[in-house]
Amino acid sequence: MRTTAWAVGMFFLxxxxxxxxxxxxQALADAEGGYTAPASIYSVxxxxxxxxxxxxxxxxxxxNPWRWTGFALHPAGVALDYAINRPIYSLTSRLPYLxxxxxxxxxxxxQRR
Length: 113
Hints:
By secondary structure, this protein is an all-alpha fold. Helix content is 71%, strand content 0%. It starts with a helix and ends with a helix.
């Protein structure tokens, strides 16, 4: 029992000393300029955050390459939409009972630009 109490006491002592050391190291790193402040203290989910924050200033200098890939492939997707998807919708809308074309499909098709 005495050994267990000693081990638990040492565990708590090491844990507290370790936490105190980490705080001191973090404070030292902050004083040396190791801390980089965020672009804003506001959440990006807050609708008023755009009023108080320049989002572009907080963005990484090199944007995500998948975004640029999406920009490059967007015309191909639009071409496939006009070549394949829209003719299928127009064909199935003429025979709704045969193809199972519903009012929801008609609503989605009407919302296309």
